[in-house]
C-alpha cells in the first residue's frame, strides 16, 4: 500500500510573523502551536530560529539579556578547560601507549632465541 503524499502548506511572511507573535504572546508550546495553527513543531522552531527568538533552555532569559554575563561565563569555562586539558591528554596518551606497546597484561611472553 502506497503512502499518502503530504500536502505542503506554504505560509507568507505575514502569516509566519502573526503565528510567532500569537505563540509568544500566549506562551504557547510547539505542540500547542501545532494544534492551534497546524504548523509542525519542526517548522515552528525553524521560524523562531530564523527570527532570532530562540534561547537556551533553563537560562530564563538572563544570558540573552546580558551579553557581559555570557562573555564572563565563556571566559571561566575556557580557563577551567585549559587547566584540565594537560592531565586529560597525559592520561589518554598513556593509555594508548600501553595498548600499543603493552602494559604487562594480555600480551603474552616474548620468545628469546
Descriptive overview:
- The protein has 113 residues and is an all-alpha fold.
- The chain has 2 domains: 11-54; 58-102.
- Helices cover 64% and strands 0% of the residues.
- The chain starts with 12 loop residues before the first helix and ends in a 12-residue tail after the last helix.
- The mean pLDDT is 81.
Short description:
This protein has 5 helices and no strands. The protein is an all-alpha fold and 113 residues long.
Q: Strands, helices and their partners?
A:
Elements: H1 13-26, H2 30-37, H3 41-51, H4 62-65, H5 67-101
Helix pairs in contact: 2-3
Strand percentage: under 5%
Uncertain residue ranges: none
Secondary-structure element string? HHHHH
Total of DSSP H or I helical runs spanning 4+ residues: 5
Percent helix, as a range, is 55-70%
Compute the CA-based radius of gyration. 27 Å
For the sheet with most strands, the description reads: none
Give the domain tally.
Answer: 2
Choose one word for the global shape: elongated
Number of strands: 0
What average pLDDT do the residues reach?
A: 81
Structural class: mainly alpha
**Cα distance, first to last residue?**
71 Å
Amino acid at each position: 500500500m502506497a503512502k499518502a503524499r503530504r500536502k505542503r502548506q506554504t505560509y507568507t511572511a505575514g502569516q509566519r510573523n502573526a503565528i510567532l507573535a500569537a505563540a509568544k504572546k500566549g506562551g504557547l508550546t510547539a505542540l500547542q502551536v501545532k494544534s492551534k495553527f497546524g504548523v509542525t513543531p519542526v517548522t515552528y522552531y525553524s521560524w523562531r530560529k530564523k527570527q532570532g527568538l530562540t534561547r537556551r533552555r533553563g537560562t530564563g532569559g538572563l544570558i540573552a539579556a546580558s551579553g557581559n554575563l555570557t562573555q564572563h561565563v565563556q571566559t571561566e569555562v575556557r580557563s577551567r578547560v585549559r587547566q584540565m586539558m594537560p592531565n586529560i591528554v597525559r592520561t589518554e596518551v598513556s593509555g594508548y601507549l600501553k595498548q600499543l606497546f603493552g602494559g604487562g597484561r594480555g600480551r603474552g611472553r616474548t620468545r628469546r632465541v
